[in-house]
Amino acid sequence: MGTLVGKVALVTGASRGVGKGIALGLGEQGATVYVTGRSEAGGAAPTPLPGTVQETAAEVTEQGGRGIAIACDHRDDEQTRRAVRQVVEEAGRLDVLVNNVWGGYEYFWDGTPFWEEAGFWTQPLERWDAAFQAGVRAHYVTTAAAAPAMVAAGSGLIVNVSSEGAEKTDTGVAYGAAKAATDHMIACMAHELRDHGVTAVSVYPGLVRTESVLRAAEFMDLTVSESPLFVGRAVAALAADPDVARHTGQVVRTSSLAEEYHFSDPVPR
């Protein structure tokens, strides 16, 4: 029996990539996992990449959990609040929130040659706006909507999917600033939530073999990389740890969590 049977999770931005991997990792352990995203079966895809929220939900169920899809554009605050409200009303609880949705990657598929945006002064301001609205703001609004249920229960885990880009200077100004903002936000949230029994952490994956990354595999060194499901197992391990509060307010890396919790990457490179 999985370690998360009876637990309820919400993973945002889970049509594909890291979000999907996290949803599947939680599903492996028997959790009920609500997944959000803009890509719907039968709808117009916002990107040329494969994957829908319905497909992710179905795969969560195949893994042993229970997957439930919610179509949601997290750039719209009311859609975000409505999604959280649906989870709490239907499930009666929310144990794990994973803020994974993000923006600012549009140049990967909008036809812009990457060398034309080699400096921040060459980029349209929309790149900054997307990273902060679909990323930082969406994380804040989703967490603010979810926190009351966790505080009332006296327990819960909030995870912001972040990146070492928050600590580097060569990953782009908008991206680096937005990731640093989401890390500091989680630290401040952890401070306010600590006395209510709710843990909040930022998780840094390594280079993840998402659909987008694999499209550019010929230009990248994937020798040291992770599958999306490896990230999912890291989050599931945190969610199952009764002493997870020791990590609150911190940045934790998937590689370190694998050593601590003894899980491995199930998908070979």
TrEMBL record:
It holds the Pfam family adh_short. PROSITE patterns: ADH_SHORT (PS00061). It comes from the Bacteria. InterPro entries: NAD(P)-bd_dom_sf, Sc_DH/Rdtase_CS, SDR_fam. PANTHER family: DEHYDROGENASE/REDUCTASE SDR FAMILY MEMBER 1, DEHYDROGENASE_REDUCTASE SDR FAMILY MEMBER 1. Belongs to the short-chain dehydrogenases/reductases (SDR) family. This is SDR family NAD(P)-dependent oxidoreductase. It comes from Kribbella jiaozuonensis.
